Amino acid sequence: MWWAKEAREAYISIGEEYEATRRRPLPVADFATFGNKALDVGSGRGAQPRYLEHEHGFVVHCDLDRRMTPGGDSVECEATMMPFRDGAFDVVYFVAVIHHMPRDAAALALREARRVGRVAVATVWAPDVWRGREVAPGVWEVPWGGKARRIYFQYQLEDLLAMAPTRVLSAGVMRRGRHYNFYIVF
User: Fold this and answer.
1) Taking the model in full, what pTM does it have?
2) What is the pLDDT of residues 22-38, one digit of tens each?
3) What Å distances lie between residue 127 and 6, 15, 76, 155, CA to CA?
4) How far is the C-alpha of 62 from the C-alpha of 162, rounded, in Å?
């Protein structure tokens, strides 16, 4: 789980500075009416948690460190081993999380999402041109100034579709500002 440690250290070190750049949520709850109980995996503290709380009556936020959650109902957990009972949530969100995981871990996390939720939504960053340095085929090291280096695994929409543990209900590309994201709903 080296990737989880790398992600935790990077986002703890850039914390508030990073969250200040996330003022607009990715409107994933607009895909459908999923239900009242939601799990926000890799929540962070930007605009995304507030948006999900507005859209659902009950939201649990989880991240690799409690300092990276918005507070309230939050849990420290890792996406491949979630501490929730089967079917505990109506929907599980992975907004900009899966691209920090190697393929085997990402596929396991998506299976976990379907174990704890009736429906799941996952997004990955889809830049036209990757900034940073390719450290292995499809693996990018993207610096945040001199404070941190973030690891991104480059996934295409076809990769998300292949990793989905069940039938995909919807898939495509969505935009937030100048950036694009691939998504699946399953």
Assistant:
1) 0.93
2) 778 889 998 999 999 99
3) 21, 22, 29, 10
4) 25
